[in-house]
Design brief:
Length: about 300
């Protein structure tokens, strides 16, 4: 058995135990009755000479009991929970919303179950090809298991922030920015694939804290400032090359169509030399960056 297996067995993983809580209204009525009765007994026993010690003691006990019971009241809003802990022992979690009463000695730890946004800071990392880039992500998450969030990690909100940053760094190093090779997804061109991978990795990391990742997406992606200009020139060069390829492909198709139509319709018979000259002229006209000013031949074709 290796060290990692020993470590995993020594770590305690808690499970949420959902428990009901008593409605606070009947208990509130009892507490009010106890407080009123306690005050009444003290008032009734004090004026008597000698004072009625029994009535006074009973009144004091009722007041103390009422105050102690009143400490057990708590309220929960929708999508809010309370973990109940008695002298360090986890007893369960109340998830229903409303006005409740529980053992006054319970420590009630409130945990919001609402969806939360984590807007990550911009991180400077190296992509798969070693290029420095800036990257940031937003994570939508919520607490699913309150016991894990409270007792399996120290400060689950901080845990989510640190693990999210670690996941984004790992993701950036696993993909190229925009040049991933044939069919390989990249950070810039495969947003859905990258988002799905980020959410999957985050869910694996945050499951220990009882957190569910509902969405994770990149919000910022750019080359680092020191190479931004060089990469911009490279992208511009690639764009020019791609445009030139399309222009040349279209020009060749047009020249081929022109020669084919002239031959099929017998408009003019051209030898190989004249065909070569015609192809050259058409390619110059079609592929040139500036407007071409042709010279009109007023003589014969072979002059």
């Amino acid at each position: 058995m290796n060290a990692s297996e020993n470590t995993s067995k020594n770590v305690s993983i808690t499970r949420e135990n959902r428990v009901p809580a008593l409605s606070g209204w009947p208990v509130l009525a009892c507490v009010v009755v106890m407080l009123v009765a306690g005050v009444a007994l003290i008032i009734a026993g004090a004026p008597v000479r000698p004072p009625a010690a029994g009535l006074i003691i009973a009144g004091v006990l009722l007041l103390v009991a009422g105050v102690v019971l009143a400490a057990g009241f708590f309220t929960l809003q929708p999508n809010e929970s309370a973990a109940l802990v008695l002298f360090g022992s986890y007893k369960g979690t109340v998830r229903a919303s409303g006005f409740f009463w529980a053992n006054p000695f319970f420590k009630k730890i409130r945990v919001s179950l609402r969806a939360r946004n984590l807007n990550g800071e911009r991180l400077k990392v190296n992509d798969k090809r070693g290029n420095p880039i800036e990257i940031a992500a937003v994570v939508v998450w919520r607490v699913e298991d309150t016991s894990r969030a409270l007792f399996d990690v120290d400060n689950f909100e901080r845990y989510v922030a640190v693990q999210s940053e670690s996941s984004v760094r790992h993701l950036a190093s696993a993909y190229a920015y925009d040049d991933g090779g044939e069919g390989e997804p990249t950070l810039r061109t495969s947003a859905d694939v990258v988002a799905a991978e980020l959410q999957r990795e985050l869910q694996e990391r945050l499951a220990r804290a009882g957190v569910v990742v509902e969405e994770a997406r990149l919000t910022h992606l750019a080359y680092a400032p020191e190479i931004a200009q060089a990469m911009l020139r490279r992208q511009q060069a690639e764009a020019v090359i791609a445009a030139r390829q399309k222009i040349v492909h279209g020009a060749v198709s047009m020249v081929e169509m022109a020669l084919k139509d002239l031959s099929e319709k017998q408009v003019v018979a051209l030898d190989d030399e004249r065909k070569a000259a015609m192809v050259s002229n058409l390619l110059v006209v079609l592929c040139g960056e500036s407007e071409v000013h042709p010279v009109v031949n007023t003589g014969t074709l072979y002059a």
